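Quick one, probably user error.
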């Protein structure tokens, strides 16, 4: 019997620069956390409908990822939480070894996973490898990213996420560079309710700052978020 959810959060957001929308239902129980999202997006080839599920343990460590595109299952991965990945048929994905988190390109939610898991103090920064899933192609590869905690507040914290670039010359020397600006994310405390925030529960971010709300993140493009907690 499945455990009864202890808490639930509903989130809706829309992009800044192109058509689309997402509905995310985030639930937690005594066994872990489930993110269930529906995304309507647009590419140069036309619209797509994406359904994804990400299961995490209580420490926000990813244990399972499932993706369907236009009603057809496209990807199903399981992880041991220590950096080993395998497909649903049991085939190991050695190319993803060492990755703990996932980053699905179509949703800002997945940027909140390493933020939650790392729980960085103000001023702390950490580089990590994520399983980057490109949508709508549903291709995946390991990608280095860096997250930095810029500010902690009673409600949560502000973080910068950047992709780490390794030109060939620097890769040989072991040095790497990050994008100078990156994206900013506001990640609330798990017990924080948007209803407690003065004003409306509809939050508007800036395309320049990419300020986030609700589940903890946004990409350049998420302008409106409406949240409900229970």
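Nope, works fine. Designed sequence:
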């Amino acid at each position: 019997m499945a455990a009864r959810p202890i808490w639930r959060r509903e989130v809706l957001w829309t992009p800044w620069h192109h058509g689309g929308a997402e509905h995310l239902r985030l639930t937690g129980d005594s066994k872990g956390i489930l993110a269930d999202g529906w995304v309507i997006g647009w590419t140069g080839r036309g619209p797509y409908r994406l359904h994804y599920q990400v299961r995490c343990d209580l420490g926000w460590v990813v244990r399972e990822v499932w993706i369907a595109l236009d009603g057809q299952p496209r990807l199903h991965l399981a992880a041991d939480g220590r950096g080993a990945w395998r497909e649903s048929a049991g085939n190991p994905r050695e190319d993803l070894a060492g990755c703990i988190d996932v980053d699905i390109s179509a949703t800002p939610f997945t940027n909140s996973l390493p933020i939650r898991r790392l729980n960085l103090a103000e001023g702390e920064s950490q580089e990590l490898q994520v399983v980057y899933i490109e949508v709508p192609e549903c291709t995946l590869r390991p990608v280095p990213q860096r997250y930095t905690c810029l500010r902690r507040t009673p409600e949560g914290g502000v973080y910068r996420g950047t992709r780490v670039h390794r030109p060939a010359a620097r890769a040989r020397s072991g040095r790497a560079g990050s994008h100078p600006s990156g994206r900013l994310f506001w990640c609330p405390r798990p017990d924080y309710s948007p209803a407690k925030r003065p004003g409306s529960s509809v939050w508007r971010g800036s395309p320049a700052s990419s300020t986030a709300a609700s589940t903890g993140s946004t990409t350049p493009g998420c302008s409106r978020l409406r949240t409900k907690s229970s």
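The first helix runs from residue 112 to 118.
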